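Hi R.,

As promised on Friday, here is the backbone we talked about, encoded as structure tokens. Could you run it through your design pipeline when you get a chance and send me back a sequence?
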């Protein structure tokens, strides 16, 4: 309680009211006036308090007055009444003496009132009529000049929904107007509760939320799988929603799909209206690249978010391999491929660790080669896989016998097998390489120098010896090659000046010289260094193809394939010690050979094969052998072809892979072990 008194000396004070005073005994007749209130702050217009006055002596009339009647008034009985926010001084006057005290008026919110009830709305959009709240003091007078905050929340929530927008608003006028309140979920009978600190709360009348117009921000796109291999399909679905995320219950919209942002390319099948607000289609990967955003267009407008991501993958290099285990009706092949992401995957037989997955087991579906290098190309042999990285080093893994891994080890036991990439021991940096179904490999440097390693008992490495090599060893003769390949007991290559050379044993005429070679390799006539193939033909430098009993190359200028050796030279005969043109006059761009058969691609990309066909590896739709080239069925066009021990794979221009032939180990890559007599697409990703 505040008190103000005069400066005269007080001898004794006695209390009086405004209308009655009592005498008290004093020792001296000094006077003093002290004014006080029952409460010195009034919180509502019309709020009251009483004045208390203390006098040192009475004897003259006492007058009460307010210095600011606009804020507070005082009557003759001492009743002070609040009129407006502010401060007033109440004075008590008696015989020239004045006593005074200040009283404050400051409204406090005591109740809230919806002066405008919320109107109905649609999902996620502002209510059609926004609520307005009046704040009143306890006397029912609207607050004025007092800052107060009102918060809004859902009270009755049948959705259940979520209230969005500016949910707390501050005003100093006593009127709080909300402008952006929205409820997302469709339902009837919502109510709002408005509340203010120390001011209580109030509940609105009911309102409804209905389905709103299509929202490009809320319409969603779902894709069953974000990784899509080229030519693969994956289901996509758009769900039409309003701004509150409510799904449309019926169809009728014009919906399409498109991709934006990244570099992957895709097409879409026709869209199916499911008549429940969803629209379905199939995304087809058409070109590999970075991830793209999959969006929907609704009635000509493209969705904003949320959208799905998809990335299209493809092969940039593929290699088929496998080994002849001489078990009837059983193939043990493997296939590997480098993706556009420079990751390397393998599938098929893996008992020797040649899948590179860190285990000595096979897989019917592609598994990632561990270790982390970025790969440029891959080569598959009988039970060894090798890859060249974009950093330069070469790695091999699988069966480690005969020095086939090139890592300095030469054992024949399983202790030397490797189930993950092992660095080839060399300072050379290779750009191309090839293997055979028998242990060993040859690789070429950027300067076209040939280095070979592995089994060498018949001089097949061309280094002038019959010593096995467990690290890359330079070929003798100083020749520069465009391609080099190994067979079981011999090797051949075409130099950069288009001359074909061979080395190793001469069994069946596979060296193409037409003469008996000068060297002896364990009782077999051989040549330990490269010798020119007879006939004087000029061949495409990159075209050599070598298998156990045959060698082939493509003549420069004519693109005619020539073969020599025994059994499968493609001219209908049983062999020749010198090059013979393959029957049919086909113009070839690429050749590859394996045990007992040869395949090639024409300059138009058509695949032809000839030779043995026990497992359907010729792709002709049967298992009948063919002494001359037969078209691979399916009408596909390829940019590369690779042969395994009993299966073949081709890569298309867009990076898809198709395989056919023996599949007992899943080497075809379709997720089965069913023999395939015609090309079957490798199914890389699976749901």
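Update: got your reply. Pasting your designed sequence below so it's all in one thread:
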């Amino acid at each position: 309680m505040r008190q103000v008194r005069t400066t005269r000396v007080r001898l004794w004070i006695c209390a009086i009211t405004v209308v009655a005073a009592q005498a008290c005994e004093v020792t001296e007749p000094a006077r003093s006036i002290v004014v006080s209130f029952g409460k010195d702050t009034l919180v509502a217009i019309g709020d009251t308090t009483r004045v208390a006055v203390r006098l040192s002596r009475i004897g003259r009339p006492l007058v009460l007055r307010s210095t600011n009647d606009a804020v507070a008034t005082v009557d003759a009985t001492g009743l002070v009444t609040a009129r407006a926010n502010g401060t007033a001084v109440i004075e008590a006057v008696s015989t020239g003496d004045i006593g005074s005290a200040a009283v404050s008026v400051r409204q406090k919110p005591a109740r809230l009132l919806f002066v405008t009830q919320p109107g109905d709305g649609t999902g996620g959009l502002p209510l059609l009529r926004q609520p307005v709240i009046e704040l009143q003091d306890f006397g029912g007078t609207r607050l004025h000049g007092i800052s107060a905050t009102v918060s809004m929340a859902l009270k009755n929530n049948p959705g259940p929904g979520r209230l969005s927008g500016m949910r707390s608003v501050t005003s100093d006028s006593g009127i709080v107007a909300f402008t952006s309140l929205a409820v997302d979920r469709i339902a009837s009978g919502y109510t709002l509760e408005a509340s203010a600190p120390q001011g209580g709360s109030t509940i609105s009348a009911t309102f409804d939320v209905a389905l709103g117009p299509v929202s490009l921000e809320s319409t969603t796109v779902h894709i069953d799988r974000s990784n899509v291999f080229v030519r693969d399909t994956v289901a996509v679905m758009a769900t039409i929603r309003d701004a509150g995320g409510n799904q449309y219950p019926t169809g009728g919209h014009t919906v399409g799909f498109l991709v934006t942002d990244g570099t992957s390319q895709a097409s879409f099948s026709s869209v199916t209206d499911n008549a429940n607000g969803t629209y379905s289609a199939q995304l087809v990967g058409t070109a590999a690249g970075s991830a793209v955003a999959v969006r929907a267009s609704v009635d000509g407008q493209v969705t904003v978010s949320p959208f799905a991501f998809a990335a299209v993958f493809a092969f940039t290099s593929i290699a088929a391999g496998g080994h002849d285990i001489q078990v009837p009706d059983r193939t043990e092949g493997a296939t590997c491929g480098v993706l556009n992401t420079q990751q390397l995957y393998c599938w098929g037989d893996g008992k020797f660790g040649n899948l590179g997955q860190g285990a000595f087991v096979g897989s019917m579906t592609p598994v990632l080669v561990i270790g982390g290098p970025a790969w440029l190309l891959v080569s598959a042999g009988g039970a060894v896989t090798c890859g060249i990285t974009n950093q330069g080093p070469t790695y091999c893994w699988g069966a480690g016998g005969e020095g086939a891994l090139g890592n300095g080890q030469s054992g024949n036991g399983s202790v030397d097998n490797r189930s993950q990439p092992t660095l080839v021991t060399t300072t050379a940096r290779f750009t191309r390489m090839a293997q055979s179904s028998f242990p060993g490999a040859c690789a070429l440097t950027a300067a076209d120098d040939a280095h070979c390693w592995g089994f060498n008992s018949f001089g097949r490495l061309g280094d002038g010896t019959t010593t096995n090599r467990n690290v890359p060893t330079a070929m003798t003769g100083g020749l520069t090659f465009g391609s080099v390949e190994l067979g079981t007991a011999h090797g051949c290559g075409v130099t950069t000046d288009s001359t074909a050379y061979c080395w190793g044993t001469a069994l069946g005429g596979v060296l193409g010289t037409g003469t008996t070679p000068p060297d002896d390799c364990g009782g077999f006539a051989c040549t330990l260094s490269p010798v020119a193939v007879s006939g004087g033909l000029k061949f495409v430098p990159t075209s050599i193809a070598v298998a156990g009993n045959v060698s082939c190359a493509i003549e420069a200028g004519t693109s005619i394939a020539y073969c020599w050796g025994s059994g499968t030279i493609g001219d209908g005969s049983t062999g020749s010690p010198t090059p013979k043109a393959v029957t049919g006059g086909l113009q070839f761009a690429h050749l590859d050979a394996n045990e007992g058969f040869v395949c090639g691609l024409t300059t138009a990309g058509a695949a032809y094969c000839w030779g043995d066909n026990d497992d359907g590896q010729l792709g002709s739709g049967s298992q009948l052998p063919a002494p001359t080239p037969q078209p691979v069925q399916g009408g596909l066009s390829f940019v590369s072809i690779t042969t395994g021990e009993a299966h073949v794979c081709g890569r298309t221009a867009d990076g898809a892979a198709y395989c056919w032939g023996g599949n007992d180990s899943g080497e075809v890559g379709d997720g089965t072990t069913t023999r395939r007599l015609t090309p079957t697409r490798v199914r890389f990703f699976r749901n």
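One thing I noticed while checking it: DSSP finds no helices and 60 strands in the chain.

Thanks again,
M.
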